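Q: I have 279 residues here and want to know how they pack in 3D. Can you give me a structure?
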Amino acid sequence: MTTKPVLVTGSTGYVGGRLVPKLLESGCRVRALGRSIAKLKARPWAKYPLAELAAGDVLDYESLRKAAAGCRAAFYLVHSMGADPKGFTETDRVAAQNMARAAAAAGLEHIVYLGGLGNPDDPLLSKHLRSRHEVAEILQSGPVPATFLRAAMILGSGSASFEILRHPLELRVGDTLDFWRVLEVEPPHRLLLLAEMKLPGEAVLEFHLAPQGDGKVELKQTARFLPRGLGGIVYWYSLVPFHRWVYRGMLAAIAAAVGKLIVKGPEPCNRSTRRHAKE
């Protein structure tokens, strides 16, 4: 195996923080990039013999170029989630341009970019998803080959989207959670999200908390889908068998994140799913 390290940007994020130890365990040298060395050192994998820590920012070309020097490939796992379309679009654009330039200057063999779903030609595509596709175009337009991995919202304890769901008091109507947008929020009891990924219809996801007494609270999650034509109907019913598995996993992640026990559920109820967790 080559001794050149792999550069991981966004190494303290949800995906990057889980990718780095997997690479290290496989025997790969990893150079983890972050704005704060102190934050990088706090990671459990920071003391691995094959781990290198590099201070830098994707918005600072010079620091990114230095971090990429001597590496053989890079994982690009960063994106902006600001509410201002002009702000996050320009930030993503500059960061991607810096990555493409730094990769070329360092002579990297490959870039792996984790982006989002959707068709960039779709006029209804959200601005955040459109920005993800623009980043992919910028990276792939450079001399270093770039692979564009398209993923839906990655939800789990520690991810930005999940942490925001844990703290609805911080949410406002119009805020984005990866590929969802907040339609309604009633702290601390209700949250309604609209899916902005490419779908054959319109999907909304609602979370509702209701105290049950005796130190317990019911978490009711309702997914609704308005299909667009026959394709939308087939799409929805093809997912129905997986709903129980998905909801069970989400309930376990939420309960673990807040340090509470699941005392019952999930249970289907009137085409929705109830969750019960000890308060």
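Q: Anything worth noting?
A: The longest helix spans residues 229-258. The two ends are 50 Å apart (CA to CA).
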